[in-house]
Amino acid sequence: MGKRVALVLAGCGVFDGSEIHEASAALVHLSRGGAEVKIFAPNIEQRDVVNHLKGSPAEEKRNVLVESARLARGNIQDLAELKASEFDAVIFPGGFGVAKNLCSWAVDGKNCTVNEHVNATLQAFHSAKKPIGLCCISPVLAAKVFPGCEVTVGQDKNVDGRFPDAETAAAIAELGCKHICKNVNESHVDKANKIVTTCAFMCKAPLHEIFDGIGTMVQEVLKLA
């Protein structure tokens, strides 16, 4: 029987929701790994809405659960209904929606607050010693909720201009966590906490390399499950 995995989304679109390619990559690798997946998102208003064509704010309001339903092809549930006891693992794709909707990292950095249902989900899986997979900016959730954990968001220096958000690693370290430098096609496993992370679009890399890196994260999560 395949592993039961919960996938948590933050909207739809890189600048105000979940990064679509990351969510899709995670779903493809989970499917290939024989996992049974259910998708969740918090039923809350987005912090903001971005016109992805112009890259500018849009004067409208959108709901995180409603927008995430686009990626889930309508098959999605309110994050408040997620029960860790029904799953073997949980995975969070990245995208600015994680830093805007699932927590306030985009505004407050290391002083951010984490959405109550996101926090409860992370705590429940961690307490049950079930693996947590995070990619792109999502590892900051673990850094905030689990002081002392190990994560990667890629490199801690802007190597060859490929890691423009390298300062995130320093903020993670300031939270008392250990940042592990990894390439885009790799993931890091914090065995003590069963947290698996990969940098994905935190690195400027070809899409297939990001896809492969997310694949290593998913594989490690399924191994730990």
UniProtKB/TrEMBL annotation:
Superkingdom in the source lineage: Eukaryota
InterPro entries assigned to the protein according to its UniProt record, in alphabetical order: Class_I_gatase-like
Protein known as: GAL3A protein
Organism: Oxylabes madagascariensis (white-throated Oxylabes)
